[in-house]
Amino acid sequence: MNSKQINYFKTIVDPKNICTTKEELLVYEYDATLLKGAPEVIVFPETTGQVSLILAYAYQENIPVTTRGAGTNLSGGTIPDQGGIALVLTKMNKVLEIDFENRVVVVEPGTINQELQDMLTPHGYYYPPDPASMKACTIGGNVGECSGGPRCLKYGVTRDYILGMEMVLSTGEVVAIGSKQQVNPDPLDIVKFMVGSEGTLGVFTKLFLKIKKISEAKKTMLCTFNSVKDASRTVANIVREGIVPTTLELMDNLLINCAEDFIGLGLDRTADALLLIEVDGLKEELDGQVEVIKKVCEKNNVKGFKIAQSAKEVDQLWTARRTVIGAVARKRPSYSMQDVTVPRNKLPDIVEEIVNISEKYNLPIGVLAHAGDGNLHPLVLFDERNQEEVEKVHEAEFLICKKALSLGGTLSGEHGIGLLKKPFLDQEFAPEVLSLKRQIMLAFDSGNILNPDKILEVGK
Amino acid sequence: MVVNNIVDPKDNKELQEIISKAISQNQKLLLKENLELKAPTVDEKTVVIDLAHLNKVIELDKDNFTITVEGGINFLEFQTLLAEKGFYFPMDTYASGHTSLSYNVLHALPSYSLGEYGNYREYVLGIEAVLFNGDLIKIGGKNIKNVSGLDIIGLMIGSQEYFGIINNFTLRLLPLPEEKQVVICNFKDIKTAQEAAFQLTNKGISPAKLLVVNTSGAQLLENNTKITKSPLLIVELEGFKASMQRKISILQETVAQYDATCLIISDNIESRDLWTIFRENQYQLLAKTVDSVSFSGFYTKLPEMVTQLDNELVKCCSDFTIIINCLIGSGMIIPSEKAGTDWYEEVGKIVDKYQGRILDKKSFKEPGMGIVQEKLKAAFDPANISFFGGEKV
Amino acid sequence: MSILKEGKNYELLNTCNKCGFCVQGCSVYKEHFNEAYGTRGRIRLIKAVANGELERTPLYEKIINSCLMCEECSKNCPSGVQGHLLVQMAREDLVREKGLPFVKKFPLEKVLPNNNLRKLSFHSFRLGKNIIPQTIKGINIKSLNIEKVDFLSSYKPIQKPENPNLKVGFFVGCMMNHTMAQVANSIVGVLTKEGCEVVVPTEQRCCGTPAYVYGHSKVTRESALHNLDIFKDVDVVVTGCASCGNMLKSYGKLFPEDSKERELIEGFSKKVRDITQFLVDDLKISLDNKQSSLKGKVTYHDPCHLVRGQNITEQPRKILQGLKGDEYVEMPGASKCCGASGMFQYFYPEEATAISNKKVENIKKTNADYVVTNCPACYQRIKGSLEINKMPQKVMHIIELLDSK
């Protein structure tokens, strides 16, 4: 970009919202992955009108635009690897409307997930998608990635909670799609198609979210097992018994120990696997479900079965779960996290393969899984300064992805493709599908300026 | 109407051939179910596809709670088959008995349980589809979560045969609920029925279905002599036995505030028959008039809006059946006989007044998205062989 | 070689995995919403300087100095990265490579560690503040009380109890010494009443927090050794200042591992207690019959250096909830920084004012009559901000509630 172009942006937004210093460019070159790529200018718009003018100009001048929120994403999706503009929406962070009666909330995209939850909880409502980074990540980012979270086995992912949006197309045109109502009478659902589009189709400037009433009661259980196999079989059996828990989270031995080091809850450090199970509903429904779950656990050689007794205990278990990913990093300087998903009953197979890969490459790999929906987060531990080890990490991850696909799985359950998994995409989809995706991206963004060539190579 | 050109592919390959031929010979395509539900004017060149032969269950996976099935299977038969094996596919529509799974999904026919159970997208995990560009594509599998780069499955659901035909599905199933009960409540007017329904959505009892019908709508349950002809609230409660009694008590207490009386149907067969009749009557009514309008509104505005619709429409034209799915605040109005176009405008005016949204039959464009949608259409159907596509875009 | 490149330091810089969870609690980030002003960004920049990718530019300095050292990021980091220590390290590097500007160097190096110069400067400030405006850079100067004669200068040993249970050294700290002599007297009084022999060494010196946080730990090391010597004869060292307590307890990290000094100073640190911690955990004082000196609603602000620095949250609440006669209400965001953070409030007035105003908002939500805390810096900042916002609440040091005279 040239200085004329950069100066033009100063006519659109307050000059304090334009950054071009080396210091600031350096801190927008990364996300939560190891990938890098610096923007040429960082722009913080504060209104839809500004976003529109910025995109219109970028479209005309053919400047790449990478939209970004808190940058906690795990796919490389917010890395401006082609330079251009980092369009950072963190200053558009107002909650514009909360309508409890009609169960809808209107937010700007920079709103932090947890801050919204904090406004809803006192009134007995919540917004179900709960990614582990919810205290830091923005709703706009959640929508861009179609974030999941532990609760989504029962309550679904971000896509199921987006009713409508105001969006700026790559040309700068502002469109409003969907509505604040719970259903769109038009069956063709462009709104839902935007969810998980990773910033390649448009920039969201307002989001209409569906909220839910908090269930009357819940019970949280902690079960430990001597093998991952027993734990995975338990997961499949619970659902077969007619119970859909809100949460079925699995951690392996390495992660149990990391969580224990960080929080110190007295978890069983010798267990090979741990399941965190939560059921909710009306209070009289819960004891029966807990009883069934306990029986299933026992049938599968459970080592320890414990029901959390107080709200504080439940909170601690959840803190342990939400922070375990980072806690792993205590073992080695760097980690890389995968997001493959397999059919629920293939969990033991993929875990076995991960153990093999870990041994083959001599890399510690921890396994964390939203086991109820077969979504695994294998965490590979290494030191990013050791180039040889980094190469091994890439190979190991490729093998994990390949194995997941061979088991009928998918490359990503909730983190998206971005840059990280772009090289693997042709392993999952046939050329016709990739070509169709490319055409769809061009239909929305003919100049290929919005997060260009993320997900797949689009070209012009 | 005479339709000569009905084809019934025996397998996916035949379906692909039919579509390839249509592309090369510039023929229009549509699914057979449309003939009854939409009564389109079809010329002899138009190819009508009947998927009836593509009805095999390929795999019922009990561990993963998924089923892989061909799209031509009759929707009601599909559900019955699942129920016999202890599984549950919670979508339930007026056309269940008459349409294929493919048709239901492609048109995203509104399910009575939409709201409690979410929409089709949450259950369609994998598809195989023949696009109108001739490609056979396979996407997804048995994974509940999948964000592997742009949600083409989501785009296909509800695409109304603009993009292609889904001929094979992998669907997420749920465990069959332990117990189901249907409660029918008589109200003195539709406004209080609607208000009571709104109250119920706040009580944590999560009904599977929560419908309000006007007095004409009550006739959809014609054979049931126990039911008085008045505006009704029809509630289906399902879930664990342990909480059923309290759910019913909460329901009774709530409607009692509106002087409504309740009839509880706890017998499974009786409630199943009730729904069969209700669905069938709604379908026949729709097929008879080939005219209806769908709309959505805010929970808080529905009582006024529905009351006005109920009052004004009768004045303006003939008799109308109104069915409101209160879980999501959406409704459908069906005239009792073909009613011209005036009523449609009247509905538009009233829905507008309460900031509701109406399904615009003339165009499927989101405002401002026209160019994008045209380009999408070009990607999926470059030869423009979709029968409806030509009209709408 | 820059200290940033030194073995252990450089290792620490490389433990950040950039998950971004640190910004969730970062008050300064939430004023800028710019990655550079959050911990992840700061660490990236420190790394860049360490690697030679970036010069120590004025903007770099501004960013590094804009940290409150509130330790929120360190608590939130699941990987256990101590963001505030990395920032401190970067400041240490800046002092070594570029030196301190006079406005910081003079007070940190010359005034605070020198008891006479410090007295003189507080004294001049007391005289001068009458002729300057009410507020400077959002700091409520008028509301700041400066004692005519500071506590240490006027201190007269009070009679020790018979058979005292412990010999307690009272570390008063500069702020309390010069602005809250009454509170200091209360601490001595309460401790004596609880059966302790209280000694107040008048030659005690600034704990060294200001020098330490601005990267001048050489000065702090000298203070540490001085204070170690002054307090060598007591069983316990008690302080009523969160920052002093935090510093005294962590002197060890200033000295090389395995050094003789390290061992001695860690022995000293083990004796240090915050006043609430000492009363509740060590003396286990009974609150059953104690009447609060206040009536009405009372809320509590957690000083950063107490809640995160020393993990003390329960003890002050036990006191507040245990005392009879007042009603305790928890404030939302009680543990969020008040915006003072030493010189931060002067150098970053916009951010500091916004952060303080959030604290004021949270206080407002409680409808409390009193805000209690146990850090003189927080005390002054909150008091000043409440006045600027024309709020009626009075700010109290926690010991004032226990001192019923």
Describe this structure in a few short sentences.
The complex is a heterotrimer of chains A (460), B (393) and C (405). Chain A has 460 residues and is an alpha+beta fold.
Describe this structure in words.
Chain A is an alpha+beta fold and 460 residues long. Chain A has 15 helices and 18 strands. In chain B, helix 10 runs antiparallel to helix 11 (342-353). Chain B has 13 helices and 18 strands. With 393 residues, chain B is an alpha+beta fold. Chain C has three domains: 3-98, Orthogonal Bundle (Fumarate Reductase Iron-sulfur Protein, Chain B, domain 2), CATH 1.10.1060; 115-280, no CATH class; 289-402, Rossmann fold, CATH 3.40.50. In chain C, helix 21 links the parallel strand 9 (370-373) and strand 10 (394-397).
What does the secondary structure layout of this molecule look like, with pairings?
The complex is a heterotrimer of chains A (460), B (393) and C (405).
Chain A: H1 3-12, E1 18-19, H2 22-27, E2 41-43, H3 48-61, E3 65-68, E4 85-88, E5 95-99, E6 104-107, H4 113-120, E7 125-126, H5 139-145, H6 152-155, E8 162-168, E9 174-178, H7 190-194, E10 203-210, E11 212-213, E12 217-225, H8 228-240, E13 247-252, H9 253-262, E14 273-281, H10 283-299, E15 302-307, H11 311-328, E16 334-337, H12 347-361, E17 365-370, E18 375-382, H13 387-406, H14 425-428, H15 431-444
Parallel strand pairs in A: 2-4, 3-4
Antiparallel strand pairs in A: 1-2, 5-6, 6-10, 7-11, 8-9, 8-10, 12-14, 12-15, 13-14, 13-17, 16-18, 17-18
Helix pairs in contact in A: 8-10, 9-11, 12-13
Chain B: E1 6-7, H1 12-25, E2 29-31, H2 33-37, E3 47-49, E4 57-61, E5 66-70, H3 75-84, E6 87-88, H4 101-106, E7 124-131, E8 136-140, H5 152-156, E9 164-172, E10 174-175, E11 179-186, H6 190-200, E12 209-213, H7 215-218, E13 232-239, H8 241-256, E14 261-265, H9 268-289, E15 293-296, H10 302-316, E16 320-325, E17 330-335, H11 342-353, E18 357-358, H12 370-380, H13 389-392
Parallel strand pairs in B: 1-3, 2-3
Antiparallel strand pairs in B: 4-5, 5-9, 6-10, 7-8, 7-9, 11-13, 11-14, 12-13, 12-16, 15-17, 15-18, 16-17
Helix pairs in contact in B: 6-8, 6-10, 10-11
Chain C: H1 7-13, H2 29-32, H3 39-50, H4 58-65, H5 72-76, H6 83-98, H7 102-111, H8 115-128, E1 135-136, E2 139-140, H9 151-154, E3 166-171, H10 174-179, H11 181-193, E4 196-199, H12 209-213, H13 217-230, E5 236-239, H14 242-249, H15 260-270, E6 272-274, H16 275-282, E7 291-300, H17 304-307, H18 314-322, E8 324-328, H19 344-347, H20 349-366, E9 370-373, H21 376-388, E10 394-397, H22 398-402
Parallel strand pairs in C: 3-4, 3-5, 5-6, 7-8, 7-9, 9-10
Antiparallel strand pairs in C: 1-2
